[in-house]
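Retry 2 of 3 after timeout on previous attempt. Resubmitting structure tokens to design endpoint.
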């Protein structure tokens, strides 16, 4: 399951010598959907590898990041583009990115209108990416760009997602590593895709697989599970991790709660999104049927009291607890079954409105005519 082991390298990324930035014409401002941003010998028109980085208030890091990315990427054979997505930074990150785009080739910077969150920023970068392989990583130099060529190398015909594992993670234990260990165990168990490190942004994806996965909420960490759901094959390899050198983490403990809520959504999507009635109907029936049985029993008991004058039933019916319970259970049963029906309709609208099939084809071959 795990690929080549990681070399220990604790030099800071910014300390490494990167090739000096070549001079190039000033980057033009780009409207959304426009063609390649500059003409550097056509190198940008069809890159094979797209590197997507969400950037939020990382002004001190972006320069070193850019240098390190170019140093690593120029040592590997594929043509590449680097997409930096400024997620509504307020610390001067955008002017810094504009300066970088004027100095470095293969760079595309996208500026979101406000802070939409890491998942949305990654999504914007993925949508803009043109490579057949997409690598994502953090902007804060905690992930090491030197690991990218190795991840891409491991992407063979049999592998669609190469997931980074921060085996020697440089974050505080109590607030980060412990919750992360628990979360990874829980996510692995619930999604059935067993990984040590869902939270590591440094991962390589086959673009066609990634494009099939729509991201909402804080879902970027679940991409390997969502991808495996559409048939992708996922492997995990250890990658380096460095302590944060500049700025501060954008997250705290409260993220754990959001991850758990997203996990419920993912589980639902994985298991029931195409047959929601099975999930809600089961709950509805298991509440509604006992309610009906209780009601029937009370009606029978009442009748037997009226007809035969036996006393025990009168006691039961007089207790509001039983009457209320019966009706409450029936009501909840009806509610859950109705939610199931609504969800069935929604699920059909979801798939049909996007012409989204309920299957994913890996390849098709035809005999020669
Ligand atoms: N990030 C982002 N939008 C946000 C929060 C974070 O684009 O609203 C980026 C951030 O700039 C960094 C990455 O997401 O590149 C991971 O954030 P951070 O390093 O704070 O998370 P941690 O490594 O502490 O889990
Ligand atoms: Mg970080």
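Retry 2 succeeded. Sequence:
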């Amino acid at each position: 399951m795990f690929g080549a082991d990681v070399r220990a390298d604790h030099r800071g990324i910014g300390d490494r010598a990167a090739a000096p930035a070549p001079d190039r014409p000033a980057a033009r401002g780009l409207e959304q959907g426009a063609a390649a941003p500059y003409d550097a010998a056509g190198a940008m028109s069809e890159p094979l590898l797209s590197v997507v980085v969400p950037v939020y208030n990382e002004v001190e890091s972006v320069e070193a990041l850019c240098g390190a990315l170019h140093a690593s990427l120029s040592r590997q054979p594929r043509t590449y583009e680097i997409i930096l997505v400024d997620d509504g930074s307020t610390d001067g990150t955008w002017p810094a990115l504009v300066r970088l785009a004027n100095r470095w080739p293969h760079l595309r910077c996208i500026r979101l209108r406000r802070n939409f969150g890491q998942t949305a920023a990654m999504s914007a970068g993925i949508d803009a990416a043109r490579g057949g392989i997409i690598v994502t990583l953090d902007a804060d130099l905690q992930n090491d760009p030197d690991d990218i060529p190795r991840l891409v190398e491991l992407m063979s015909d049999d592998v669609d997602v190469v997931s980074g594992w921060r085996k020697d993670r440089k974050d505080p234990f109590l607030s980060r590593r412990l919750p992360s260990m628990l979360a990874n165990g829980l996510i692995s168990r619930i999604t059935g895709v067993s990984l040590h490190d869902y939270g590591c942004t440094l991962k390589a994806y086959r673009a066609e697989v990634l494009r099939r996965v729509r991201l909402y909420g804080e879902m970027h960490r679940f991409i390997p599970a969502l991808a495996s759901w559409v048939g992708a094959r996922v492997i995990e390899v250890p990658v380096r991790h460095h302590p944060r050198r500049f700025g501060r983490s954008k997250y705290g403990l409260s993220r754990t709660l959001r991850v758990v809520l997203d996990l419920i959504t993912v589980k639902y999507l994985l298991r029931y999104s195409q047959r929601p009635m099975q999930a809600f109907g089961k709950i509805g029936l298991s509440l509604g049927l006992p309610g009906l049985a209780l009601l029937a029993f009370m009606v029978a008991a009442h009748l037997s009291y009226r007809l035969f004058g036996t006393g025990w039933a009168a006691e039961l019916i007089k207790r509001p607890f039983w009457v209320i319970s019966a009706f409450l259970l029936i009501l909840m049963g009806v509610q859950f079954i109705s939610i199931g029906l609504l969800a069935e309709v929604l699920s059909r609208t979801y798939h049909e409105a996007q012409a989204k099939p309920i299957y994913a084809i890996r390849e098709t071959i035809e005999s020669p005519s």
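Attempt log closed. Confidence is low (pLDDT under 50) at residues 1-11, 25-43.
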